[in-house]
């Protein structure tokens, strides 16, 4: 009987060892298979159509060079899940682009610079008055004449480059083909927004008729009916209100000619 048992163990022990090894191997394969299924499910749950916004990232390596090379445009995914309240307002300082109401050529051509000054003083947490605005505008104009050879009618890329070159901001965005919600999202995030505009489409009764062909202004808030702005084109421009359809229709970047301003793309500048 003992001999028969030894024969049995001798004959069948290798078989049992192989059977146990096979069971462990199949168990590991099942775990890996389930993990792979889980990864596949996660992939399937990713959004199929993620909205994108074209952004010009004004990091130093992307700046326009003296030889005329253009700024690089980057496709950047923007989150659209930020909740937008019905009304919102940032406290942003203000002074008009013609501080002493002279409205000479320098004043007439200073809306871009004045908008930058307004945003700069917001970030510096400084009060802005007509004396400081005059000083800032003169310095900005002199800087541009010395560095670029001109200061008139800058498009959004050039205005953003000025913010970087003169004030030293390293994080400046230019965003094209924008919507009303794009503007609201930046404001709610805490950024005053500079927009270029076909000035006469704004219909501001405080402008000297018929109004500027090309203009820049700063969006500081909104309510259910429209945007609240600091518009440097008038001394009454602090917290000036524009209905949504008016401002949306008026936003146009400078296309190279004031007479063709309504052909310019919708754009905004975000200084961070």
Task: Report the CATH architecture of the largest domain.
Answer: Alpha-Beta Complex
Strand content: 15-25%
Flag low-confidence runs.
29-54, 57-79
Helical run tally: 8
CATH hierarchy class name of the largest domain: Alpha Beta
What quaternary form is this? single chain
Separation, N- and C-terminal Cα atoms? 91 Å
What's the shape? elongated
Q: Look at the structure and name the CATH superfamily of the largest domain.
A: Cysteine proteinases
The number of strands is: 9
Q: What is the arithmetic mean of pLDDT?
A: 82
3D structure, described in words:
The N and C termini lie far apart (91 Å). It is elongated and about 115 Å long. It folds into 2 domains: 1-46; 52-271, Cysteine proteinases (Cathepsin B, Chain A), CATH 3.90.70.10. It has helices spanning 2-45, 105-108, 111-124, 130-147, 156-167, 180-188, 199-202, 244-250, and strands spanning 52-57, 74-77, 88-89, 172-176, 193-198, 214-222, 226-230, 240-243, 267-271. Strands 1, 2, 3, 4, 5, 6, 7, 8 and 9 form a 9-stranded antiparallel sheet that branches. The protein is of the alpha+beta class and 272 residues long. The chain contains 8 helices and 9 strands.
């Amino acid at each position: 009987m003992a001999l028969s048992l030894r024969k049995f163990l001798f004959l069948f022990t290798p078989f049992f060892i192989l059977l146990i090894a096979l069971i462990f191997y199949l168990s590991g394969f099942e775990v890996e298979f389930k993990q792979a299924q889980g990864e596949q499910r996660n992939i399937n749950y990713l959004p199929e159509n993620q909205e994108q916004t074209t952004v010009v990232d004004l990091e130093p390596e992307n700046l326009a060079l003296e030889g005329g090379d253009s700024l690089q445009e980057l496709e950047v995914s923007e989150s659209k899940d930020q909740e937008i309240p019905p009304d919102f307002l940032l406290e942003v300082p203000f002074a008009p682009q013609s501080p002493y109401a002279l409205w000479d050529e320098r004043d007439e051509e200073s809306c871009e610079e004045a908008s930058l000054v307004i945003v700069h003083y917001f970030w510096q947490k400084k009060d802005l008055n007509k004396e400081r605005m005059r000083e800032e505008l003169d310095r900005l104009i002199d800087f541009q004449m010395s560095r670029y050879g001109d200061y008139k009618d800058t498009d959004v890329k050039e205005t953003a480059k000025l913010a970087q070159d003169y004030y030293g901001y390293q994080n400046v965005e230019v965003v094209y083909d924008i919507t009303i919600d794009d503007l609201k999202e930046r404001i709610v995030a805490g950024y005053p927004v500079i927009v270029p505009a076909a000035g006469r489409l704004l219909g501001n009764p405080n402008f000297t008729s018929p109004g500027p062909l090309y203009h820049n202004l700063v969006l500081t808030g909104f309510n259910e009916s429209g945007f609240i702005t600091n518009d440097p084109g008038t001394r009454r421009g602090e917290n000036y209100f524009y209905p949504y359809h008016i401002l949306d229709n008026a936003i146009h970047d400078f296309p190279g000619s004031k007479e063709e301003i309504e052909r310019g793309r919708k754009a905004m500048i975000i200084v961070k």
